[in-house]
Task: structure prediction
Amino acid sequence: ISETRSHGSSTRRRVVSHTVDRDGAARSFDVTLSCITGGRDDVSGVVAVLHDVTKEKEVAQMKTDFVSNVSHELRTPLAGIKAYIEMLLDGDAEDPQTRREFHEIIAGETDRLSRLIDNILNLARIESGVVKVAVEPMDLTAVVKSTLEVAAPQAKAKSIELVESLAPVFTQVEADRDMINQAVMNLVSNAIKYTREGGTVRVATRIEDHRGVAVVEVADSGVGIPAEDLPHLFDKFYRVKSSCKMAKGTGLGLALVKHIVETLHRGSLTVRSTVGENSGSVFTIELPICS
Ligand code: ADP
Result:
């Protein structure tokens, strides 16, 4: 204000950006300043109009972060595919065994690429509201059962015991079967990924009549999630530094599960977790039961 005033009455209108950082919570403003001239040249006052643009700035930053994260995530499998194709072209794989190995790596990386793109597209479609949900009375326990069958080989490969405790939850829930299947699959697969060999993953379904919800609970005896990471766990591309080396991933799975459960089915997804001895995580999906 004093700067504008010192420029004198010639300054009719100027816009400056200003950020106030109070206790680490920054707010950004576009400030429009105009001099009020009294009489001829003298400035009798300055009017400042503050426009809070914090949200717009955050959204712009998120878009930039998103693009750079996506590019980074896409580049990693692509670099692998390119390297192995070049080795094949250069004749580095002379025997059929090595060639087969290279082809399998390329196939694996291609799968990863297409999973990543599917996840990004699914998230984008849910967020923009164009996803059609095929809601029907659903046999929740059967869906969870079939998910466990698919996950069994992944658990067996790590000698992880899959324990099920499935109550008869049949048609009490109206939901999109494929989407709930994908959500439960993501949680079970994470539980296996972030649990060391020989651990246990428990999956339970039950009805809590008094609260009007059907519950799917996925509990593991895994490495747990540090308290400081919990608030960010459902953010896109967020991976926990201390455990992300245990398994390949993109940090999109939980963001997708959150959207499927909360945005599309008016349910809730929550997590409890501790790190250290007797550690482990419990992810809970609650879906409203229909009357
Ligand atoms: P990712 O593809 O990395 O597995 P997710 O969005 O599914 O992405 O999970 C985000 C992060 O949350 C993971 O990278 C992992 O660090 C952490 N996480 C998810 N599930 C568990 C779990 N059951 N136990 C410990 N950490 C987990």
About this structure: The first strand starts at residue 14 and ends at 22. Residues 186, 190-191, 194, 220, 222-223, 225, 233, 238-240, 243-244, 249-255, 281 surround adenosine-5'-diphosphate (CB under 6 Å). DSSP finds six helices and ten strands in the chain.
